Amino acid sequence: MLEHGGRLRAAAHRYAIPVPQWLDLSTGINPNGWPVPAIPERVWQQLPEDEDELIATAQSYYQAPALLPVAGSQAAIQMLPDLRPTCQVGILSPGYAEHAAAWSRAGHILQPLRSEQIDQQIDHLDVLLLINPNNPTGECFCREQLLLWRQKLANRGGWLIVDEAFIDSAPEESLALESTLPGLIVLRSLGKFFGLAGARVGFVLAEASFLKVLKERLGPWALSGPARWIASQALQDRRWQQQARQQLNQQRLQLNQLLQGMGLKPTGGSALFQWVVTPAAKKIHHQLAQLGILTRLFQEPSSLRFGLPADRAALSRLQDALQQIQQEVSLP
Q1: pTM attached to this predicted model
Q2: For residues 273 and 5, is the Cβ–Cβ distance under 8 A?
Q3: CA-CA distance, 7 to 29, in Å (whole number)?
Q4: pLDDT value at 253 more than 90
Q5: I need a surface site. Which of 1, 31, 40, 295 has the fewest CB within 10 A?
Q6: Distance between CA 112 and CA 134 in Å, rounded?
Q7: Is the pLDDT at 69 greater than 80, yes or no?
Q8: Domain identity same for 161 and 56
Q9: Residue 327 has what DSSP assignment?
Q10: Are residues 254 and 219 in the same domain?
């Protein structure tokens, strides 16, 4: 299995620091997520029902004509490669590693790509898989370009898969409204913007006929009843969503400014994380961990992803830690 952020207990064990004492910046999850209320008892006592309000609520939030709830977008990531015969798959690199792992396990031929190479290679691909904004680089793709690539792929039965796990802060950039176009598959998740990673709720947006095939493969009760109820409530809470977008933008700017001030100018990022490419990434990661601050380390390229500190106290703790290790890691 691949390494991911959020493995706090493993870090606590390795560095002998109790879990409550850590500042976990290793994920791109909103640290001030949607406040989950008490779940009604009936939700626990009944089997999940497709006829509840979740699908209609999600269609309204995403502005999507058709969608399928899944157990986090990870469920779709693992299933999609099984729905095509062996083919040529272009995948943006670096990117969320589970995509490449899933298509590789299914026997497909992977071609890692940089964004500037896509136009040259698109005619040789059966599937193009992008994350928008990309994780961890934060690179974004405009709607017009994505739709052009979708058309070229669809003309020969290909797919454009767009993982929009981090797009909720800028929903106007989503392809959700166009997601019923042939050959377009859009993945969404409640884990990042809503901070509900533990609920394991995601959605596949695509043509209704494709969703029917995927639903049959997944089987009944892909989501638990409590997860469906929580998702419905969160997707309806427009006031919280508006406030969260404003707050995340402020937190992003604060983190960006802090890192720049410490000589760690972000190479990229999104509303939920900042990405710093540096040869000292491994050493910085280790030094911060010794102080109870967990970041996400990437080997290729040598880089760190910093999630958002939840408040001023957490931001100050990060600043103090970076100042403490500044000389040891030769920061400017």
Answers
A1: 0.94
A2: no
A3: 13
A4: yes
A5: 1
A6: 14
A7: yes
A8: yes
A9: T
A10: no
Q: What is the pLDDT of residues 264-285, one digit of tens each?
A: 999 999 999 999 999 999 999 9
Same domain for 229 and 81: yes
Out of 236, 258, 283, a domain closes at 236
Residue type, 237: D
Q: Does residue 267 sit in the same domain as residue 282? A: yes
Final residue of a structural domain among 218, 236, 254: 236
User: Is the C-alpha dihedral spanning 53, 56, 60, 61 positive or negative?
Assistant: positive
DSSP string, 134-192: -TTT-----HHHHHHHHHHHHTTT-EEEEE-TT-TTSGGG--GGGTTSTTEEEEEESSS
Q: Two tokens at 176?
A: 């959700």
- 140: in domain: yes
Q: Is the pLDDT of residue 54 over 50?
A: yes
| CB distance 202 to 73 below 8 Å | yes
- Rounded CA-CA distance 27/6 in Å is 6
Helix (H) / strand (E) element for 57: namely helix 54-62
State residue 329's pLDDT score: 61
pLDDT at 331 over 90: no
Element (H, E) at 252: helix 238-261
How many domains are there within the chain?
2
**Domain co-membership, 139 together with 248:** no
Tell me how far apart the alpha carbons of residues 84 and 80 are, in angstroms, rounded to a whole number. Answer: 8
The continuous run of DSSP H or E covering 61 comes out as helix 54-62
The whole-angstrom distance between residue 297's C-alpha and the CA centroid of its chain comes to: 16
Q: Could you say which DSSP state residue 39 is in?
A: P
Q: Is the CB of residue 69 less than 8 Å from the CB of residue 221?
A: no
pLDDT tier at 112, thresholds 50, 70, 90: very high
For residue 330, pLDDT over 80 is answered with no
